[in-house]
Amino acid sequence: MSKYIQALGALALSLSLTVGVFVPAHAETQLLNVSYDPTRELYKDFNAAFAKHWKAETGEDVTIQQSHGGSGKQARSVIDGLEADVVTLALESDINAIVDNSGKIAADWRGRLPNNSSPYTSTIVFLVRKGNPKGILNWGDLVKDDVQIVTPNPKTSGGARWNYLAAWAWANEEYKGDQEKIKAYVADLYKHAPVLDTGARGSTVTFAQRQIGDVLLAWENEAYLAGEEFGEDAFDIVVPPISILAEPPVAVVDANVDAKGTRKVAEAYLQYLYSDEGQNLAAKHFYRPSKPDVVDPELLKALPDVKLVTIDDPLFGGWKKAQPEHFGDGGIFDQIYKPGN
Amino acid sequence: MVEDIHMTNAIVGEPPEFRNPASESPAAKAALILAALVFLTFFLFLPLVSVFVEAFRKGAGEYLAALAEPDAVSAIKLTLLVAAISVPLNLVFGLAAAWAIAKFEFKGKAFLITLIDLPFSISPVISGLVYVLLFGSHSLLGPWLKSYGIEILFAVPGIVLATVFVTFPFVARELIPLMEDQGTGDEEAALSLGASGWQTFWYITLPNIKWGLLYGVLLCNARAMGEFGAVSVVSGHIRGLTNTMPLHVEILYNEYNFVAAFAVASLLALLALVTLALKTVLELRFGAGNTGGKH
Amino acid sequence: MADTTAVSGQWRLKQPSIIPGFGMTLGFSLAYLSLIILIPIAGLIWRSASLGWSGFFSVLADTRTQDALFISFGTAFVAALINAIFGVIVAWILVRYEFPGRRLIDAMVDLPFALPTAVAGIALATLYAPKGWIGSLFMPFDLRIAFTPLGIIVALVFIGLPFVVRTVQPVMEEIDREVEEAAATLGANRFQTITRVLLPGLMPAILTGFALAFARGVGEYGSVIFIAGNIPYVSEIAPLLIVIRLEEFNYAGATAIATIMLLISFTMLLVINLIQAWSRRRYGHG
Q: Please, which of A88, A113, B136, B204 could form a disulfide with A250 given CB 3.0 to 4.6 Å?
């Protein structure tokens, strides 16, 4: 028996030895950028570019740590104490939530950087199977009898809310503002969705890998990325004649940078997103740069002109109004699924 | 304890005329094995096989490269560290709780057992959330600890706490039915012969429960390493710092890096297989005779 | 221990026993339990109490909450039942039979614990999707598994299997074969021996395994969201509804659903544990 105990002890010991020493934080300046899911590839490149730029400018080393996750969840982590220096999220309302629930970001954040603090924008497009067998060209085609759509759940995914709003914007034009008809269209649209994944990337996998559905409603940059990842010959991208202007905003987390003394570098980091290099990197990753004039025209070719409705359009009245009205508890989206509808 | 003589009857190739009455007919045996195998194929083997198929889709080179990547290595280290702290804690608790519950009759026992079961029934999302409520920026404790420079949330202590919470019942729940089943006769005999309490535990109880204990520890360890939901809430997902292996899997998956994601996932599966191989070695070496009806 | 002078009829916390260590082990267990489980859960309930009774009941009265709870508890129950039946068979063949690959199967039973639940969910969703290895087998019968409540059951069977096998297995290994021989000698056929002699002795362990698999299934999130479809009122599980409330920054609403789940699970577990305590007294110590 004691042998057995010894063996168990040895097992425990070897286990704890494998762990080794847990490496503590480095000495040079560190920034934590808390972001949402689809920006991984962009910030991987941008962080390297900024570190180089900062070194050339000031001689200081800076490392940028990344945290990615669903936009709403990331906002909650910052509210609960995740020490983000900057947040780069999917929706204005998520940053507003940080302002309202923790006061860690000043209420005037949206006016502190150009273009409503959105250095790049995006829109919603359709990803369809190669050759577009179901002939999907516009939002109205999504509710044809034999079409199945894939979109994430607007309650849990920021991107999904842009999908929903884009559909709403089209229906508003199609039905000349008739509320009942718009609601009926959007409800019909979601009846064509067999799965509501919790995040945008989950939906992409459902569509691309599990071969569910005929069309994926996706961020423009995600649609291109999916094309690259899953093979160019598997899908076509259809840009509908009207869509939404998705503005993913960025902000410095005031309370955290003041506590850590990183305000200067954090502000420079966000400013650099508007620089020529930052804008080109955004375009390279298929975001729409806010200053297209500084960007290589070759990169812009992939981003065709579309009629884009903004969230501040009277149709939606800004996030502060649209969020509770459409996506709040008991809001229009919840009503779609009420039995008997 | 068990006479292996009886078991020799079950050896394959025995004349069919005679069958041990304390054993099933060969047909029944075959049917049971078949039923179990079909069930396991659909619910266990195929999911696992698919993990390894995905992991090796681009060959062994890619597989190893995915594991050697610095973020993967730091995730592996963090996972081992978290397991190395939380498993012993729950092991000590499991022994103490099982002793109190199985060896004594007292009021409120079923209530206490139910409280121990509770973490199983709590959604992992909530298991993480309770610590956020307790230590977050809006709590009483969080800002107070922070004024002393102690970070709980979005750091290692929070991850350990969430893991301890989720794996809390494993050892205790493994031991309680076993120790209850064994009763108190052996211990009472030892005590009446003059053994001390510790001696009784060490020489009488522990050998009796060693397999149950080992199962409990292995399960606890496996779950501690594999926990995703609760840890995800308290981790903050900082690449290379607070990402455990399961969280790293999610990150890789969300980067469409399926090979790397499944490679790290398969490593978790392999870790479980290694601990189980160790169990088998221990079984063969120290106690085959004690494993009841086992051959 | 203090209460050796037992007077019949007098209330006492515990039955007298010569075994030492009750105070120490129980005391430690309670302290650790409070620190890790009870205090954090009290915080949770406290947070949901900020809703007040009326707010709490309106969460409960919402058909969406009710449907989600029904889906979570219903699928967990079915999955635990499947696991209780097949888990016992698996444990039995592992303990009693010798066949090629037995040790490998024994080793693999624990893997649902080790595999991160998200990976399990992804793997299962891929397999059981209409074009997956397994899902395509069922398509000729027009039976969809992934993205329906059936998919939830599949995920929960996977998640809960080790609970039943690993609780039943050690008890099975301790069974004295002489009991079975005695039963056979006394004229019982094999079926009678199993149902009348062996199963009653195993029942506490089977019930424990069932209860644990059930409890675990009720709260499971990571694996289920990939395969469930997540359509409100159809395949939306209660933990997803909690996450949705959190996304609305509605902590009170989220904790209220969590508290309701907690109360239901606690009651069900308590009933199962009481049945077990009763069956143990009835059948004695194994």
A: A88
Q: What one-character DSSP code corresponds to residue C37? A: I
Q: Which of B37, B55, B73 is the last residue of a domain?
A: B55
**C254 and chain B: CB distance < 8 Å anywhere?**
yes
pLDDT tens-digit series, residues A206-229: 898 888 999 999 999 999 988 888
- Return phi, psi of residue A90, to 5°: -85, -25
Q: Are residues B94 and B39 in the same domain?
A: no
Q: Find the CATH number of the domain harbouring B132.
A: 1.10.3720.10
Q: Which of A89, A95, A195 to mutate against chain C (most C CBs within 10 Å)?
A: A195
Are A81 and B153 within 8 A, CB to CB? Answer: yes
- Residue A91 touches partner C, C-beta closer than 8 Å: no
Q: Are B51 and B266 in contact (CB under 8 A)?
A: yes
The predicted-structure confidence for B235-292, as pLDDT tens digits, reads as follows 888 888 899 999 998 888 888 888 999 999 998 888 777 777 777 777 777 664 444 3
- Are both B92 and B119 inside the same structural domain? yes
Domain count, chain B: 2
Domain membership flag for residue B291? no
**B94 and B46 housed in the same domain:** no
Q: Which residues of C touch A (CB under 8 A)?
A: 63-64, 122, 125-126, 129-132, 146-147, 225-226, 229-233, 240, 243-250, 253
Q: Using the beta-carbon criterion (under 8 Å), do C115 and B103 form an inter-chain contact?
A: no
- Residues B182, B42, single domain; the answer is no
Q: CA of A77 to nearest chain B CA: how many angstroms apart?
A: 7
Q: What would the two tokens of residue A122 be?
A: 């995006």
Q: Hey, of B4, B14, B130, B250, which one would you mutate to test binding to chain C, going by the most C CBs within 10 A of its CB?
A: B130
Nearest-Cα distance to chain C for B150, in Å, is 18
Which structure tokens are listed for C27? 């005391």
B64 with B103, same domain: the answer is yes
Cβ distance B178 to B212 under 8 Å? yes
Element (H, E) at C21: none
Q: Indicate whether B295 belongs to any domain.
A: no
**What are the chain B neighbours of C89 within 8 Å (beta carbons)?**
32, 35-36, 39
Tell me the mean pLDDT in the region C32-45: 92
A330 close to A324: Cβ distance less than 8 angstroms: no
- pLDDT score for A329: 87
Given pLDDT bands bounded at 50, 70 and 90, which one contains residue B16?
Answer: low
Q: What is the pLDDT of residue B255?
A: 83
The predicted structure's pLDDT at residue A26: 42
| Beta carbons of A311 and A165 less than 8 angstroms apart | yes
User: Amino acid identity, residue C160?
Assistant: G
Considering only the beta carbons, identify the residue of B1, B197, B222 that sits closest to C20: B197
- Kindly list the residues from chain B whose CB atom is less than 8 angstroms away from the CB atom of residue C258: 122-123, 126, 129
- Give residue B18's domain range: 1-55
Whether residue B117 is found in the same domain as residue B151: yes
CA distance A302 to A300: 5
Same domain for B148 and B234? yes
Q: Among A99-113, A167-181, A306-320, C168-182, which stretch is predicted with the lowest mean pLDDT?
A: C168-182
Phi and psi dihedrals of B86, rounded to 5?
-75, -35
Q: How close is the nearest chain C Cα to the Cα of B71, in Å? A: 18
**Domains of chain C and CATH, by start:** 1-52 (no CATH), 62-283 (1.10.3720.10)
Q: A83 contacts in B (CB within 8 Å)?
A: 154
| Residue type at position C57 | F
The answer to whether the beta carbons of residues A160 and A200 sit under 8 Å apart is yes
pTM here?
0.85
CB contact under 8 A, C114 and B222: yes
Residue B199 has pLDDT above 60, yes or no: yes
